[in-house]
C-alpha cells in the first residue's frame, strides 16, 4: 500500500466520486488501494461479492483490474463486467445484489478517469457514506486481511440489462420511429444497438467506442456538442434525436426540427407517465428544474418533492419518500423501478414510447411540457466562498422589495412578486463558480433578469 496525505486525496476523492487526470491525480497504485479500502468496508458490511465495469477510455481496463485486485485481496469475489454504461453497472449491482464500481470520468476529456462506487442495489457511496472512510483508511492504513483472497471472474450482463429495461417500458406497441442517436463515441455506442436496435430505425452518429472523443466532447449539456445531432436529425428525416454523454447515464433530446427539448420538459413528461402507472405517487425534482415539473405533477394528481441539486440528495430523497421517479435539470433521471438509480436509456425509452403512442411530431407533442423560457446555467468565476456568499447576500438585498418568497435550500432561490419568474444563484461544489439559473414566462423577462443579476455578480 502507498503512503498518502489527505490534501492529495481530497483532490482526487470528491463529494460523489473519484476523479482526476490519469498519471497525475489517479494511477493504478492508488486505484488498487482504493479497491482494497472499498473491499474492507463492504466486507465489513456483509458483502461477499462486487461487480466492476468500465467505459471506453484507454486507461479504464488497467484501472478496473487494479481495483478488482485490491478488492479481492480484502476477501471480496469480484466480477469484471467489461465495458458497460454506468446505468448498466447499476443494473448489475441491483440484479446481483452486490456492491459495484464503475470506471468513468463521464463527460470529462480523455486524460481523465474516475470511479463511481455503490453499495448493493445501486445505493450511492458519497463523502458521508463511504468516500470519507476510504480516505481515512488510505491515510491511516488498511487492516491486513488474513483470510483467503477473493476470486476474480468475468460476466457480460448487456443482454440481461436490455431485457430488464424492456420489462419496464413497452416500446413495441406504438408506431415505428426513426431515431437519430449521437453516442459521442461513448458507451451509448454499445448499449443503444443492444437495447433499441430491434424496435426502432436507428440512424447512428459517432457510435465508434473511442475514449479520445475525436468528434466532440461527450457532454451534451453544452450546446456546442448538440450541433451535430441537430443537423443529423433533420438530414436523416428522423422523428427524434437523442444524445448520450460519455458513460450513457444521461440522455438529451432534440425534436424533428433539430430544436433541443429541455431536460425539465422530459422530466415533466416522464413524471406524467409514472403518475398514470402509479396514481398519487411522489415525484422528486431538484430546485433548478422548470416550474412546469411540479405543475404537471400536481395536475396529474401526484406529490412533488423539491430537493437540492446532486444525485446523492435525489437518491436519498427517493428512498426516504418512496418516490417513483426523480429528475434533474442536468438530464439525470432516477427510477424506483431501477433501484432508485439514474438511467439515460430508461428515460429515452419512456420518451420514445410516449412519442410512438400518438401521431403528433415531437415538437408539437412536447409543447404542453414547455411553458416557460429559461436562461440555462450561466457561470461566473469568483475567487472565494466568502466572495460568493457576499454576492448572494447583495442579490438578496437588491431584490428584497420584489421577492414573493425565497430560500437557501441550495444557494439562493428567489420567486418574484406578480410574476412566475424566479432565479437561483448557487455555488459550484467543485469549482470557484457561482451558477445562475433564471426562468420566466417570456424571453424578455429572462434576459432582463439575467442582465440584472449578472450585473451584481460581476460588478
Automatic annotation (TrEMBL):
InterPro entries: A-D-PHexomutase_a/b/a-I, A-D-PHexomutase_a/b/a-I/II/III, A-D-PHexomutase_a/b/a-II, A-D-PHexomutase_a/b/a-III, A-D-PHexomutase_C, A-D-PHexomutase_C_sf, Alpha-D-phosphohexomutase_SF
GO MF annotations in UniProt: intramolecular phosphotransferase activity; metal ion binding
Cofactor: Mg(2+)
Coiled-coil region list: none
Pfam families cross-referenced by the UniProt entry: PGM_PMM_I, PGM_PMM_II, PGM_PMM_III, PGM_PMM_IV
Gene Ontology biological process terms from the UniProt entry: carbohydrate metabolic process
Annotated signal peptide: none
Gene3D superfamilies assigned to the protein according to its UniProt record, in alphabetical order: Alpha-D-Glucose-1,6-Bisphosphate, subunit A, domain 3, Alpha-D-phosphohexomutase, C-terminal domain
Keywords: Isomerase, Magnesium, Metal-binding, Phosphoprotein
SUPFAM superfamilies documented for this protein: Phosphoglucomutase, C-terminal domain, Phosphoglucomutase, first 3 domains
Residues of the Alpha-D-phosphohexomutase C-terminal domain: 378-454
Annotated Alpha-D-phosphohexomutase alpha/beta/alpha domain residues: 13-129, 160-258, 264-372
CDD domains: PMM_PGM
Family: Belongs to the phosphohexose mutase family.
Protein name, UniProt field: Phosphomannomutase
Lineage of producing organism: Bacteria, Bacillati, Actinomycetota, Actinomycetes, Mycobacteriales
Amino acid at each position: 500500500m502507498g503512503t498518502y496525505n489527505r490534501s492529495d486525496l481530497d483532490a482526487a476523492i470528491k463529494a460523489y466520486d473519484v476523479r482526476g487526470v490519469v498519471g497525475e491525480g489517479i494511477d493504478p497504485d492508488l486505484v488498487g488501494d482504493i479497491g482494497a479500502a472499498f473491499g474492507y468496508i463492504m466486507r465489513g458490511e456483509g458483502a461477499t461479492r462486487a461487480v466492476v465495469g468500465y467505459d471506453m477510455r484507454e486507461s479504464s481496463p488497467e484501472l478496473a483490474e487494479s481495483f478488482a485486485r485490491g478488492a479481492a485481496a480484502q476477501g471480496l469475489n469480484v466480477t469484471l463486467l467489461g465495458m458497460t454504461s454506468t446505468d448498466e453497472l447499476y443494473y448489475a449491482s441491483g440484479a446481483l445484489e452486490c456492491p459495484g464500481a464503475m470506471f468513468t470520468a463521464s463527460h470529462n476529456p480523455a486524460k481523465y478517469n474516475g470511479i463511481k462506487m455503490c453499495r448493493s442495489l445501486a445505493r450511492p457511496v458519497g463523502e458521508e457514506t463511504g468516500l470519507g472512510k476510504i480516505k481515512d483508511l488510505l491515510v491511516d492504513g488498511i487492516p491486513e486481511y488474513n483470510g483467503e483472497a477473493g476470486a476474480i471472474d468475468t460476466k457480460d450482463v448487456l443482454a440481461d440489462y436490455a431485457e430488464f429495461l424492456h420489462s419496464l417500458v413497452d416500446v413495441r406497441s406504438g408506431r415505428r420511429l426513426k431515431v437519430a442517436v449521437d453516442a459521442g463515441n461513448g458507451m451509448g455506442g454499445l448499449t443503444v444497438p443492444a437495447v433499441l436496435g430491434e424496435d426502432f430505425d436507428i440512424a447512428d452518429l459517432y457510435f465508434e467506442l473511442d475514449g479520445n472523443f475525436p468528434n466532440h466532447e461527450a457532454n451534451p449539456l453544452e450546446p456546442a456538442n448538440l450541433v451535430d445531432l441537430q443537423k443529423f436529425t433533420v438530414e436523416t428525416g428522423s422523428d427524434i434525436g437523442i444524445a448520450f454523454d460519455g458513460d450513457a447515464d444521461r440522455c438529451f433530446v432534440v425534436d424533428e426540427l433539430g430544436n433541443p427539448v429541455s431536460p425539465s420538459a422530459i422530466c415533466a413528461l416522464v413524471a406524467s407517465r409514472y403518475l398514470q402507472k402509479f396514481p398519487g405517487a411522489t415525484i422528486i425534482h431538484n430546485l433548478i428544474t422548470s416550474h412546469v415539473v411540479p405543475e404537471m405533477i400536481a395536475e396529474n394528481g401526484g406529490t412533488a418533492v423539491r430537493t437540492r441539486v446532486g444525485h446523492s440528495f435525489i437518491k436519498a430523497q427517493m428512498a426516504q419518500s418512496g418516490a417513483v421517479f426523480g429528475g434533474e435539470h442536468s438530464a439525470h433521471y432516477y427510477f424506483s423501478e431501477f433501484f432508485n438509480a439514474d438511467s439515460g436509456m430508461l428515460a429515452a425509452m419512456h420518451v420514445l414510447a410516449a412519442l410512438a403512442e400518438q401521431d403528433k411530431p415531437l415538437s408539437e407533442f412536447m409543447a404542453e411540457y414547455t411553458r416557460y423560457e429559461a436562461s440555462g446555467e450561466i457561470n461566473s468565476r469568483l475567487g472565494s466562498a466568502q466572495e460568493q456568499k457576499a454576492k448572494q447576500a447583495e442579490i438578496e438585498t437588491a431584490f428584497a422589495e420584489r421577492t414573493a418568497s425565497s430560500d437557501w435550500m441550495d444557494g439562493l432561490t428567489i420567486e418574484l412578486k406578480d410574476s412566475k419568474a424566479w432565479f437561483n444563484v448557487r455555488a459550484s461544489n467543485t469549482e470557484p463558480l457561482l451558477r445562475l439559473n433564471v426562468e420566466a414566462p417570456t424571453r424578455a423577462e429572462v434576459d432582463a433578469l439575467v442582465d440584472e443579476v449578472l450585473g451584481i455578480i460581476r460588478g
